[in-house]
Design brief:
Chain A has about 210 residues and is an alpha/beta fold. Helix content of chain A is about 35%, strand content about 25%. A 6-stranded mixed β-sheet of chain A has the order 7-8-9-3-10-11, with helices on both faces. A 3-stranded antiparallel β-sheet of chain A has the order 2-1-4, with no helix packed on it. The two termini of chain A are about 20 Å apart. With about 220 residues, chain B is mostly helical. The two termini of chain B are about 30 Å apart. The chains are: A alpha/beta (about 210), B mainly alpha (about 220).
Amino acid sequence: MNAVTKRFGAATVLDKVDLAVAAGSFTVIRGANGSGKSTLLRIAATLTSPSEGQISINGVDALRHSADARREIGAVMHSPMLYSDLTIRENLALFATLCQLEKPQDRVEAVASRLRLEARLDERVRGLSHGYRKRVAIARSIIHTPNLLLLDEPETGLDESSLEVMLQIVEEWRSRGRSVLMATHSSDFATRAPDAAYTMTAGRLEHFESS
Amino acid sequence: MTASLSIIWALTLKELRIESRNRDVAVAIVMFASLVIAIFAIAIEPNARTALETGPGVLWAAITFAGVVGMTRATSHELENDAVGALMLAPVSRDLVFIGKSLGSFVFLTIAMLIVFVVFTFMFNLSIFRAEILLVALLAAIGFASVGTLFSSLIFRVRAREVLLPMLFLPTVAPLLFSAIRVTSVSVAGDTWSASLPWIQLAVVYDVVFVTASALLFGYVLDD
């Protein structure tokens, strides 16, 4: 990200943010509620357009070729982004088909197994708890093995065992040369050995620490 | 090409699956339109002459207003859990998302229209199952579905969307509405195809222009 600014009316939510996430790294952004973390991640996920600045994901200009850039991205945002009247299997299969994956049903089974969702695959999302919905959202985010995983406060609503699974996924992504960018307000999460850590205050990003 | 078709089919299937489990969009359209037609039928007490004069207008006004109600319902599925975000995160062109969603709406509208036609035939005692009327109904469904998909996406995050949708939708589809009313009027009056042709041509031109424009604008309106 280069000099990314986002304004909503007169309010500047992001102010000339520069951020580079290295391949195979786990980068954490900490910050209070309303500091601009989620907006930054939504822009990185091409869900929101910046007012100014450039974004490149794995060499793809995300503003000019957003569909190609999204192939490189998996994202878990605040809301689970799932259709309540579809089952877990149908939600995941829809996304796998949109990603044009070969054998989408096999990928659905694989990620469901990874997130321990196999037993509930044919249940509708409407009947799931918040934690389960989050798990499905995580499963969807990794179904196409993206190079960049964007996690916006993923710890919210997850129990201990689900958190551990998620941390294993983060570690796996890092070890395979893929990247993870996580926004969190949990200091506990931010201390789990990130390669780079930043704090965001009033739309400005400051380097916090680096291991 | 095959990949694009499979994406469009997956999106259309998603719309149909959700509707088959709730039936709230098609039911909303059929119930609302049937009620409007019934109220007018009771108020007008149509005879052979008044049915010809007022019937076509009542039919298409009922379908158009019911279409707005149906589209408002359809939007609610996308808003729950911010589900539309999943489509926005998918590595596909927004054009394909637009086509898939519009196709789903087109199917609901067409089915609902056929049921409403039966209700209208019964209430006004006018036979409207004629080739030119069915053709203009098909063209109207295409236009309503594409313009409705665009506008309902435009106002996803607006609080007063139930009010805004008809304010945007109704003036925009007015030319399509007029052509549908005119084709129905001349057809039930016993005129030949040539009398309907200019209005069918208007509907075709409308669909070409508005489907293209809606597809081009959809990507922009879907962004925050």
